[in-house]
Design brief:
- The chain is mainly alpha-helical.
- It has one domain (2-36).
- The chain is built from 2 helices and no strands.
- The protein has helices at residues 2-18, 21-36.
- It is elongated and about 45 Å long.
Length: 40
């Protein structure tokens, strides 16, 4: 059972990387950090 969950997680990660989701998350994180220090 744990290998099935591991496989599904791997597929979800691969899909996110192919869809360039990491760039969207990074941009949101940058904006939140800039808002916290008062620049954005």
């Amino acid at each position: 059972m744990k290998y099935v969950i591991l496989g599904i997680a791997g597929l979800a990660i691969a899909y996110g990387l192919m869809d360039e989701q990491q760039l969207e998350v990074l941009n949101k994180a940058i904006m939140i950090c800039l808002e916290c220090i008062g620049i954005g």
